[in-house]
Amino acid sequence: MVVDDDAAVRNLISRFFGYNNYDTQTAPDARTARELFQRFQPDLVILDVNLPDESGFKLCQEIRKTGVLVLMLTCMTDTNYVLEGFEKGADDYLTKPFDLEILKAKVGALFKRRLADKPYHDSSFNNRIIFDKLVIDVEKCQVTVNNNLVLLTTLEYDLLYFLATHPNRVWDRSELLSSVWSDENEEDKAERKVDVHIGQIRKKIGDMDGKLIKTVRGKGYMFEPPVPISL
């Protein structure tokens, strides 16, 4: 689903993805997007930040609660806006003007990341990885804390899963970028992204004191759990 107040942009993206065998629907504002979302039930939303009735960041938060992928599309190039997009749950971010092939590549990468087996999957962990109250369901790509579902973005899940399956080792930011953001263009990689996503993961899993995901000053991050129980 494409949500953008610019009819030319909506039509351009819709026609392009339709030509590439995607089923697409478009909405000009947040109100229409909410109504269409219930009927269309998209797998991914391309969302503009500047909507006529409210901020796209707010709509992004709502959409991410459903687990649907969100790619923010905006003319705002300031780093703070980009980081706010990720903080609100966006899975990726592309600024205008944009290349349609780059947009298609990003959409394809998001679907591939969600559907494909993780390249760093450890077969010694079966269906679930349990660290006390934190449970990572590998088959469903879901995380629960105290039996409550934690709504992570695709990148947040990938980052947590990578750290949890490679524990007790310090990973610097560049290594995490190479391992988890491996399909992104170099210009899209910023080490500050890692800090933003780590902060969001800690907040969501209740690890604000950094007992599980430790910050190693001047080096990076380390997952230091109790001994896991595999089921």
UniProtKB/TrEMBL annotation:
Pfam families: Response_reg (PF00072), Trans_reg_C (PF00486)
GO cellular component: cytosol; protein-DNA complex
Residues covered by the Response regulatory domain: 1-111
PROSITE patterns hit by this protein: OMPR_PHOB, RESPONSE_REGULATORY
InterPro entries: CheY-like_superfamily, OmpR/PhoB-type_DNA-bd, Sig_transdc_resp-reg_receiver, WalR-like, WH-like_DNA-bd_sf
MF terms (GO), sorted A to Z: phosphorelay response regulator activity; transcription cis-regulatory region binding
UniProt keyword Transcription, yes or no: yes
Organism classification: Bacteria, Bacillati, Cyanobacteriota, Cyanophyceae, Oscillatoriophycideae
Known DNA-binding region: 126-225
GO terms (BP aspect): regulation of DNA-templated transcription
Sorted UniProt keywords: DNA-binding, Phosphoprotein, Transcription, Transcription regulation, Two-component regulatory system
Entry annotated with the keyword DNA-binding: yes
Superkingdom of origin: Bacteria
4-aspartylphosphate carried by residues: 48
Domain OmpR/PhoB-type: 126-225
Protein name, UniProt field: Two component transcriptional regulator, winged helix family
